[in-house]
């Protein structure tokens, strides 16, 4: 053996996990999606065919594909196929408006877009005439015929050339507003996914006996962290297209689901449907009074995270990276694959007990935003990734999360950035000024409220503002409440005084961790 062969021998990427599971867990169930149940060997066979089908359609190392659909086992198949090729997958937010969807596709420039017709098709059909002018392929995953997902599989061969793919290259892209209101695709590497999977598996007590319910949207890292952990540990992932309380009851009982990512209102609906207690939900909820549930995670009693839920993380860090179950107070301590510093504006580390910007370094940090060189440079100029979040070092060395440098609204499981909603409302010619705030909501934690200043002669009502936003941006981002004001309070530097707007118009309940 030549010494220069060792770099290739030592390489291990996300697809290599599947290759080994196919050998060491060939008959264990890897994936459940409706009536389709796949063992790890069967999953590897399908992924080989998908990868070969993608190659025949021109996808190669460094290329990008996009998924615009609801939850499906096919998302994992495509991600693993990209891992074998060296390509990158972006599961896009299917809840966006048609203009937002067009912008996402333009920004990411995928070679192939896999789209779903049921419930999601409008964002494709509205733009399809425009798509004809682009050299881009469209594959309907829930359709039939030559341009459907199963046809792509049928065109591929069950052959794995085991192409060398560097585990530090991007594999997964997740769109995030990146705190400035403009959508950007955070590129996450094989290594980031694998290391986060190991961390999540330990924290959530996931092993090969676990059954993980993929019930949260797969365009968020919140559910992906647990799903990747179950996959890497050799457990099974149970997919549900979208959250439906009755279907979830069936799946929990039939598949003995042990882990899930579920918002509180959904669990309330499940319990109301099974008020008589006839369903066996003990694998997920051992106690009917839910005293063993720590929303939004449903995890076993013995899981380290179960009793220490504090955490801090970002999509750009492949999820939660500072964890209370690792010790300390507040949000906890960083995991073993990350360094954290707290820096002032000049890049100097602040003394313990003082607030500074959280800066990170290590393999969990993203590979940068796709196509955003200027932002990437600004966020990494001093050799540390600047998170745009503020933190404080506790006396025991652990970290507390103080809050975002730019205010964020948390409604249910969704992050909403005021800058994005404000830009939408400012597009109305009647609007002179606007400030979007979060107001406390008993059901969803926060609701979006817009405080609007109209031009002197303009006439506009609350309904018109809300309907404008409903059609221009994702519906969950639109304001539920619109208030009109003669002017907005401002700071000496001319910026809107958001604290004063909160105080005057009922703002509050902003997310805090640690």
Automatic annotation (TrEMBL):
Keywords attached to this entry: Plasmid
Gene Ontology molecular function terms on file: acid-thiol ligase activity
Domain of life: Bacteria
Domain AMP-dependent synthetase/ligase: 19-370
Alphabetized CDD domains for the sequence: PtmA
Residue span(s) of domain AMP-binding enzyme C-terminal: 420-494
Coiled coil: none
Classification via PANTHER family: LONG-CHAIN-FATTY-ACID--COA LIGASE, NONRIBOSOMAL PEPTIDE SYNTHASE PES1 (EUROFUNG)-RELATED
Name of the protein this chain belongs to: Acyl-CoA synthetase
């Amino acid at each position: 053996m030549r010494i220069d062969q060792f770099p290739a021998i030592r390489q291990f990427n996300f697809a290599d996990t599947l290759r080994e599971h196919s050998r060491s867990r060939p008959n264990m169930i890897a994936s459940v999606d409706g009536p389709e149940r796949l063992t790890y060997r069967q999953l590897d066979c399908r992924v080989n065919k998908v990868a070969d089908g993608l190659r025949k359609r021109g996808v190669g190392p460094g290329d990008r594909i996009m998924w615009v659909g609801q939850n499906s086992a096919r998302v994992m198949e495509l991600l693993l196929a990209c891992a074998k090729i060296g390509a990158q997958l972006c599961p896009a937010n299917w809840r966006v408006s048609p203009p937002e969807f067009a912008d996402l596709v333009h920004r990411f420039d995928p070679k192939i877009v896999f789209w779903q017709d049921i419930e999601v098709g409008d964002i494709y059909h509205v733009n399809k005439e425009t798509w004809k002018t682009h050299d881009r392929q469209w594959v309907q995953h829930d359709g039939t015929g030559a341009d459907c997902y199963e046809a792509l599989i049928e065109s591929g061969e069950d052959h794995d050339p085991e192409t060398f793919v560097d585990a530090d290259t991007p594999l997964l892209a997740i769109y995030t507003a990146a705190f400035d209101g403009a959508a950007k695709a955070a590129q996450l590497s094989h290594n980031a996914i694998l290391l986060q999977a190991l961390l999540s598996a330990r924290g959530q007590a996931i092993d090969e006996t676990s059954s993980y319910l993929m019930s949260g949207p797969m365009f968020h890292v919140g559910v992906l962290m647990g799903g990747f952990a179950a996959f890497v540990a050799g457990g099974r992932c149970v997919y549900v297209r979208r959250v439906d309380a009755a279907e979830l009851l069936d799946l929990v009982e039939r598949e003995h689901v042990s882990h899930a990512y579920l918002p509180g209102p959904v669990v309330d609906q499940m319990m109301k449907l099974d008020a008589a207690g006839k369903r066996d939900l003990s694998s997920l909820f051992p106690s009917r009074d839910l005293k063993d549930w720590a929303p939004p995670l449903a995890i076993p009693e013995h899981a380290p995270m179960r009793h220490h839920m504090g955490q801090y993380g970002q999509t750009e860090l492949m999820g939660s990276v500072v964890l209370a179950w690792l010790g300390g107070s507040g949000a906890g301590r960083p995991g073993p694959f990350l360094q954290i510093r707290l820096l002032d504006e000049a890049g100097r580390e602040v003394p313990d007990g003082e607030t500074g910007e959280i800066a990170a370094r290590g393999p969990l940090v993203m590979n940068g935003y796709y196509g955003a060189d200027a932002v990437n440079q600004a966020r990494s100029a001093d050799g540390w990734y600047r998170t745009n979040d503020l933190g404080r070092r506790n006396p025991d060395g652990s970290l507390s999360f103080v809050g975002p440098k730019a205010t964020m609204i948390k409604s249910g499981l969704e992050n909403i950035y005021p800058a994005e909603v404000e830009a939408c409302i400012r597009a109305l010619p009647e609007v002179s000024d606007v400030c979007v705030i979060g107001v406390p909501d008993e059901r969803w934690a926060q609701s979006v409220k817009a405080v609007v200043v109209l031009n002197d002669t303009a006439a506009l009502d609350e309904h018109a503002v809300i309907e404008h936003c409903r059609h221009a941006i994702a519906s969950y981002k639109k304001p539920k409440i619109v208030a009109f004001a003669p002017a907005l309070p401002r700071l000496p530097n001319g910026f809107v005084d958001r604290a004063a707007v909160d105080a005057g118009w009922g703002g509050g309940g902003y997310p805090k961790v640690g």
